[in-house]
Amino acid sequence: MLNIVLFGPPGAGKGTQSQKLIEKYNLIHLSTGDLLRSEIAAGSELGLKAKSLMDNGLLVPDEVVIGMIANKVREHGNAAGFIFDGFPRTVPQAQSLDKLLQEHGTEISAMLALKVDDEELTNRLLLRGQTSGRPDDQNEELIRKRVQEYNTKTAPVADYYAGQSKFFAVDGIGEINEIFAQLCKHIDSLTQ
Ligand code: ADP
Question: Which one of 10, 105, 166, 168 has the minimum C-beta count within 10 Å?
Fold first, then answer.
């Protein structure tokens, strides 16, 4: 299996690149942000709890997202592999993912990180907020809060994978296709 963690701050382009990667490598896309927004849309109890945290730019509890991911991995037992987008976002989430994949007889192949500076991120997210309808993209203070959550809680996840020699970084500023080519280069070097 090819299991990729696509990593980077909010607005780095993970969603865009995930779409291209799932097509090329025939992978299942698992975005915890998308899964949480579906729960909110469905009006579930989980969605209601998550919404107030998400609307304040805060992370939802680890056990909530871990449970959602475990269900999805189980559902797609025969997949060629997964792209994890927006997950793991904390070190405990990364440890749980390792355990989960081990139970399924597989492991993370690589973490691919998209590097984008804070100013560019804020501009991209405000622009996205004009069309996405996402409340968390429409307020500059909230965007800064999310980037701050990323810098304190999520950035250490990169060290976790670096410790397993699975971390690769790519410049996330530039042409979408050029960034995609860089990501593919790393993936192709894994499978050779
Ligand atoms: P972005 O990367 O643009 O912030 P996402 O769609 O990945 O957007 O996430 C939106 C929000 O959902 C986050 O700000 C957070 O509140 C919540 N969320 C998503 N994934 C996780 C996760 N793995 N752990 C905790 N909270 C999460």
Answer: 105
